[in-house]
Amino acid sequence: MALIKSISGIRGTVGGNPSENLTPLDVVKFTAAYGTWLIEKNNGKKVVIGRDGRISGEMVSQLAVNTLMGLGLNVVDLGLSTTPTVEMAVKWEGADGGIIITASHNPREWNALKLLNSEGEFISAEAGATILELAAKDSYKFAPVDKLGSYTVNDTYLQKHIEAIVNYPLVNKEAIAAKGYKVVVDAINSTGATAIPKLLEALGVQEVVVINSEITGKFAHNPEPLPENLTSLSAEVKKHGASFGIAVDPDVDRLCFVCEDGSMFGEEFTLVAVADYVLSKKKGNTVSNMSSTKALKEITLHHGGEYFPSAVGEVNVVNRMKEMNAVIGGEGNGGIIVPDLHYGRDALIGIGLFLSSLAQHKNGMKSFRAKYPDYFISKNKMELNNGVDVKDIFEKIKAKYKKQPVNTEDGLKIEFDQDWVHLRTSNTEPIIRIYAESNFETTANNIALRLMHDIKEFMA
Prior knowledge:
Layout: E1 3-6, E2 9-13, H1 24-42, E3 46-51, H2 57-70, E4 74-80, H3 83-93, E5 97-101, E6 110-116, H4 125-136, E7 151-153, H5 157-166, H6 173-178, E8 182-186, H7 192-202, E9 207-211, H8 231-240, E10 244-248, E11 255-258, H9 268-281, E12 285-289, H10 295-302, E13 307-310, H11 314-324, E14 326-331, E15 335-337, H12 347-359, H13 365-369, E16 376-383, H14 390-400, E17 406-407, E18 412-416, E19 419-425, E20 431-438, H15 441-459
Parallel strand pairs: 3-4, 3-5, 4-7, 8-9, 8-10, 12-13, 12-14
Antiparallel strand pairs: 1-2, 2-6, 5-6, 10-11, 14-15, 16-20, 17-18, 18-19, 19-20
C-alpha cells in the first residue's frame, strides 16, 4: 500500500491508514490544500473536475467536489471523462484550475488527484511543493455558509473535444473515411469506451468493435497498455479481420496500436509515426522524455528539425517543448502532445493524426510499421523497499560506468555506443524503472539485466 506525492499528483492505494494510503481524509486534505493555493495565489473562483471509470472514482470525486465547495470555489463537474478533455475544459470554462481523478495506468486499487493550473496544464513542481506544505500544516480556511461554492454538471465537453480534433488542420477526415477501416478498441472498462467510438465515428470509421466496454473500473487486465497486457486485443483483431486495434489507458492519455496480424505497432512508435506526419506538414523541433526511443531524434533530423530530450513526467516534457518551441512532442509510452491544440498528452488527437498518416499509406498497418526502424526497448521495474537510498545506489553505478557518457538530469542515463539504459525512480509507483534500448532485443534485455544486477548488488 502506498501514498505518493509527486509532479504527477497525489496518488495512492485506496483504503487503509490515513497518510499511508489514499483515504477519504487524504483526499479532503490535499484537495483543501490545492483549493487554498488557488484562492491565495491566484484569487481562484472556479475549478473543473472529471474522473475516469475507476471503482473509487465517484467516492473520491464527491469528496473533492464538496471540499472545493466548502472552500467557496465553484465546481464544474464533467463526470466520467478523459484527462485531455478535462485539461481542455479548464481553458474553455475560463477556470482557475482543475482536478482529474485518475491513477492513469495503475491497477484498480489505485486512484489519484491530478492537479491543473488555469492553462489546463499540470501544476509546476514549485506549486506542488507549496500545496504539500499547506497540506502538511493543515493551512486552509473554509468558507462560511453564505459563501459556499456552487456546483454544476457539464457533459458537453467530450463532444467539443472531438469536434476540435476533427477540425484540426492536419486531421484528414475524408482520407480516413475513404479507407473503410474496421477497428477493434480495447477500452479497459473505463472512459475510453465512450470517447474512442465517438471519435472514430466522427472521423468516418464505420465499423468499430469495442472490448472491455463496460465502464465498471474492474479492469479486465493490467491497465497499462503494454504488449503483455494486450493479448486479448490482438486475438480480437485477428478474429474480426480488423484493419487494426487501438488500446488506451483508463484516462485516455496514452495510445498504442495493434497491426492487422495481431502484432504490436509498439507504443514507442506511436509518437514517432505521429511526429513523422506532423513534421512532413510543418517544420519544427520535437521533444520526448529521455526514456523514449532514439527513433524520434532520427525522424526529426530527417525533416530538418532539432530534437531535445527532457526529464520524465508530462510537466517536464511540456516545459521543454515550450522552451524549444517544439511543434510535436510527448512520451514513448504512447503519450502525444500537440501544442497548438493543448499542452497535454491526448490519445484522441493522437488517433486523429495517426489515422490521417496511415490513410495516406497504400497498404495496411503492418506495412506502415515497416517504414520505421525496429529498435527495441526493454522495459523493466524493481520494487523499492522502505529506507533504500536510491541516490547512493545511482552514485555507485555512475562510478562503475564512469568511462561511458552519463546524463544525471533525471535519475541516471548511460550510453553504450548506439545503445542506452535509463534508471530512475517512478513518479507514480514505489519502484525503480530500468529501460534499455538497442537495435536488437537480446542486447537491450541483456543491458537491462546487467544494470538490474548492479542495483541488487549495491542495494545489499
